[in-house]
Amino acid sequence: MDQSALKERILTLVPKAEYQENKQFLTFVIPPDQLHELALHLRNDADFAFDYLFCLSGVDRVNVLEVVYHLESTIHKHQLVLKVRTSDRENGAFETVCDIWRTAELHEREVFDLFGIRFNNHPDLRRFFLDENWVGHPLRKDYKDEINIIEL
């Protein structure tokens, strides 16, 4: 399946998806309530066969928190980026995908720790780098580091 066909199939599966121009990857912003179902389909459908989640990142865009998923099909050799967003900075949450791609388990813990984004149904969502008593999420733009006087 070429890039154009891949794009059309995803837009058919998720009509509310927003396609973003990107020179390297096909990139889509997905409604959060459709992420898990789409991810499962992308992994299980033989035409897609996205069997490898090679990166999962958190992003603070000031007005929204975002999670970015980089996927690859090692069979078909195509790649794809999915993004989900929330404007809820206090209780932002998305469905976990670690039941689909096991590599997501630690990536989601990292995003939770550093950005404060929760992943519903994650089997072990707890801090990854920082102590349990750490206050705040240091990669957020509104984070204040009073001790070390570091501001982002």
Tag the structure with descriptive keywords.
single chain, 152 residues, alpha/beta, Beta Polymerase, domain 2, 5-stranded mixed β-sheet, 3 helices, elongated
Summarize the structure.
With 152 residues, the chain is of the alpha/beta class. The protein has helices spanning 3-13, 35-44, 104-115; strands at residues 18-20, 26-29, 52-60, 65-72, 79-86, 93-95, 118-120, 144-145, 150-151. It has one domain: 2-Layer Sandwich (Beta Polymerase, domain 2).
Describe the structure.
By secondary structure, the chain is of the alpha/beta class. The chain has helices at 3-13, 35-44, 104-115, and strands spanning 18-20, 26-29, 52-60, 65-72, 79-86, 93-95, 118-120, 144-145, 150-151. The strands form three sheets. A five-stranded mixed β-sheet has the order 1-2-5-4-3. Strands 6-7 form a two-stranded parallel sheet. The model has no long low-confidence stretch (mean pLDDT 94).
Distance between the termini: 42 Å
Q: How much helical structure, as a percent, in the residues?
A: 10-25%
CATH architecture: 2-Layer Sandwich
**Low-confidence residue ranges:** none
- Helices, by number, come to 3
- Amount of beta strand: 25-35%
List the helices and strands and how they pair.
Blueprint: H1 3-13, E1 18-20, E2 26-29, H2 35-44, E3 52-60, E4 65-72, E5 79-86, E6 93-95, H3 104-115, E7 118-120, E8 144-145, E9 150-151
Parallel strand pairs: 2-5, 6-7
Antiparallel strand pairs: 1-2, 3-4, 4-5, 8-9
